[in-house]
C-alpha cells in the first residue's frame, strides 16, 4: 500500500545527549534481525554438503550427481533472484522478507521427505528460488534503515550471518545425522526460519511507520542528500528492469557478482568434500576445520564493512573508500592459489589460507552490495540487487556445469582429483582482481543515477 510517511514527532525538551544515545537503538535491532535471517538462510543451504557422505551411500551418488543437484539449486536461485527483487520492491521489506523466509523454511524441511536423486534436485530447486529473496530484502532493509556512511558496516554485520550459518552447520548437522538420522538434520534446521518469522513480525516496521522510532534517529537515517529530497521510498514509481539495464552502474554490479559469487558457492558446497578427498576427514571430523574457515569469514565480513567506514571517517569520499577497500580485499584472495602446497606441510595451513580467502570474499560482499545503494535510489535497490544476484547465480551454474562437473568427474576417474582442486584455486585467486578491474572501468567515479532521465555517467 502506498502511504505517506509518518514522521515521528519531536520529543519536547529532549536533551541533546539523550537524543544522541537514542540514535542506533532501533536500526541496529533491525540489523540483528537481518543477521539472524541470513544465518538461517545459509544454514539451510549448507546442510546438504555436510550430509553428502550419508546421501552418497543411500542414493549411490557420484561427483556428477552431486553437481547436478547443486546446479538445480543455482538455476532456481538465479531465476528467483531476478523475480525476488521485484516482488520485494512491490510488497515492501516487511511482507516480502517474511514470505521468502516462510517458503524457504518449508523447502528446507521438505528435503527430509525426498526418496530419490531427482527428488533432491526438485527440493533444491524449490529451496533456491525461495532463498533468493534474502539478499534483495536484506540490502533494501539496510538502505531503508542506515545512512550511506554506515551501510557497508551494517551489510558486513548481517552478511556475517552467512558465515555463522556455515559455522553452525558443521558443528550440528553431522552430530544430528549420527544421532537421529540425516532427515532430522533437514527438519530441525529448516524449522528455525519459523522462529525468525515470529520475531520479524513482532519487531519490524519500516522507519516511516515505526511507532517507537525517535525523531533524532529518523533524521539521522535520512541524513543523506537523496533522503532529504525524498524521505519516503514507497510513494515513488517503480523502475523497469529494461531501464535499469541501460545503466553502466548496473552492469558493474552484475559483472562483479557474476565473477565472484561462484567462488563462494565453491567454498560452501565443496569444502567438506575437499577435506574428505585431500585429507581423509569424514563425518564429525570435518566440523572443526570447516567451522574455522567460516569463523575467519565472519571476521572478514565485519572487517570488510569497517575498512571503508574508517577511510570515510578520515576524509575519503564514500565511493572511493569502497573501491579502494575492494582492491585491497581482492589482493587478499590470491594466496589461495598455494593452498595445496601449504597443506602438504600441514593441513591447517591449507585451512588458514582458504579461510583468509573466504574472509576476503565476505569483505568483498559487504562492499559490492553497498555499491548498489551508493549508485541507485532506494526504490531501485532491491531490483538491482536481484539482477546482480541472478548474474551471480548464472556464474555459479556455468562454473559447476562447465568446470566442476566435467573437470571433477574426469580427474576423479583418473585418480587425480587434487589437480581439479588446484585449477579451482587458480580460478578463485584471479576472479576478484578481474571483477575489480571491470567494475572500475564501468563505474570509475561516484554519481548516483537519476531514474528520471537517461544519464549514465558514473
Can you walk me through this structure?
The chain is mainly alpha-helical and 458 residues long. The chain contains 18 helices and no strands.
> Average pLDDT across residues?
82
Rg from C-alpha positions? 22 Å
Choose one word for the global shape: globular
Strand content: under 5%
| Total count of helical runs of at least 4 residues | 18
What's the story with the biggest beta sheet?
Answer: none
Distance between the termini: 33 Å
Weakly predicted, low-confidence segments: 1-22, 227-235, 454-458
- Helical/strand content category: mainly alpha
Fraction of residues in helix: over 70%
> What is the N-to-C order of secondary-structure elements (H for helix, E for strand)?
HHHHHHHHHHHHHHHHHH
Number of strands: 0
In short:
This protein is an all-alpha fold.
Which key features would you list for this structure?
mainly alpha, disordered N terminus
Please specify the SSE layout and strand pairing:
Layout: H1 16-22, H2 25-59, H3 63-91, H4 93-110, H5 117-131, H6 134-145, H7 148-180, H8 182-203, H9 215-221, H10 225-229, H11 241-244, H12 248-279, H13 287-313, H14 318-333, H15 339-345, H16 347-375, H17 378-413, H18 417-442
Helix pairs in contact: 2-4, 2-6, 2-7, 2-8, 2-12, 3-4, 3-5, 3-17, 4-5, 4-6, 4-8, 6-7, 6-17, 7-8, 7-13, 7-16, 12-16, 12-17, 12-18, 13-14, 13-16, 14-16, 14-18, 15-16, 17-18
Amino acid at each position: 500500500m502506498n502511504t505517506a510517511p509518518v514522521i515521528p514527532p519531536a520529543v519536547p525538551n529532549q536533551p541533546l545527549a539523550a537524543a544522541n544515545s537514542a540514535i542506533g537503538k532501533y536500526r541496529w535491532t533491525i540489523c540483528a534481525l537481518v543477521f539472524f535471517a541470513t544465518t538461517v538462510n545459509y544454514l539451510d543451504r549448507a546442510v546438504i554438503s555436510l550430509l553428502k557422505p550419508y546421501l552418497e551411500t543411500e542414493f549411490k551418488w557420484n561427483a556428477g550427481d552431486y553437481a547436478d543437484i547443486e546446479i538445480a539449486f543455482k538455476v532456481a536461485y538465479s531465476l528467483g533472484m531476478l523475480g525476488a527483487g521485484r516482488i520485494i520492491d512491490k510488497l515492501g521489506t516487511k511482507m516480502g522478507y517474511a514470505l521468502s523466509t516462510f517458503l524457504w523454511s518449508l523447502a528446507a524441511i521438505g528435503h527430509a521427505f525426498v526418496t530419490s536423486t531427482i527428488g533432491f534436485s526438485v527440493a533444491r530447486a524449490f529451496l533456491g528460488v525461495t532463498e533468493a529473496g534474502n539478499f534483495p530484502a536484506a540490502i533494501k532493509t539496510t538502505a531503508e534503515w542506515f545512512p550511506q556512511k554506515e551501510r557497508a558496516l551494517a551489510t558486513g554485520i548481517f552478511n556475517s550471518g552467512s558465515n555463522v550459518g556455515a559455522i553452525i552447520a558443521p558443528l550440528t548437522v553431522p552430530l544430528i545425522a549420527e544421532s537421529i538420522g540425516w532427515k532430522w538434520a533437514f527438519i530441525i534446521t529448516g524449522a528455525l526460519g519459523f522462529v525468525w518469522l515470529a520475531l520479524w513480525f513482532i519487531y519490524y516496521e519500516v522507519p516511516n511507520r515505526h511507532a517507537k522510532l525517535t525523531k533524532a534517529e529518523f533524521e539521522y537515517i535520512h541524513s543523506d542528500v537523496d533522503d532529504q529530497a525524498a524521505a519516503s521510498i514507497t510513494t515513488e514509481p517503480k523502475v523497469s528492469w529494461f531501464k535499469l539495464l541501460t545503466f553502466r552502474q548496473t552492469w558493474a554490479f552484475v559483472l562483479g557478482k557474476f565473477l565472484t559469487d561462484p567462488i563462494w558457492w565453491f567454498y560452501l558446497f565443496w569444502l567438506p568434500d575437499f577435506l574428505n578427498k585431500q585429507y581423509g576427514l569424514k563425518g564429525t571430523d570435518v566440523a572443526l576445520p570447516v567451522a574455522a574457515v567460516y569463523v575467519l569469514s565472519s571476521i572478514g565480513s565485519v572487517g570488510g564493512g569497517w575498512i571503508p567506514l574508517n577511510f570515510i571517517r578520515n576524509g575519503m569520499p564514500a565511493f572511493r573508500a569502497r573501491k579502494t577497500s575492494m582492491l585491497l580485499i581482492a589482493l587478499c584472495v590470491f594466496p589461495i592459489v598455494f593452498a595445496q602446497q601449504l597443506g602438504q606441510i600441514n593441513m591447517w595451513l591449507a585451512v588458514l589460507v582458504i579461510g583468509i580467502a573466504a574472509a576476503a570474499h565476505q569483505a568483498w560482499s559487504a562492499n559490492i552490495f553497498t555499491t548498489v545503494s551508493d549508485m541507485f535510489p532506494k526504490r531501485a535497490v532491491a531490483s538491482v540487487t536481484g539482477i546482480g544476484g541472478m548474474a551471480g547465480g548464472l556464474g555459479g551454474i556455468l562454473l559447476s556445469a562447465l568446470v566442476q562437473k566435467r573437470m571433477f568427474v574426469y580427474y576423479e576417474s583418473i585418480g587425480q582429483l587434487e589437480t581439479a582442486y588446484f585449477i579451482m584455486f587458480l580460478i578463485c585467486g584471479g576472479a576478484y582482481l578481474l571483477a575489480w578491474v571491470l567494475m572500475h572501468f564501468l563505474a570509475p567515479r561516484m554519481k548516483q543515477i537519476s531514474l528520471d532521465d537517461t544519464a549514465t555517467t558514473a
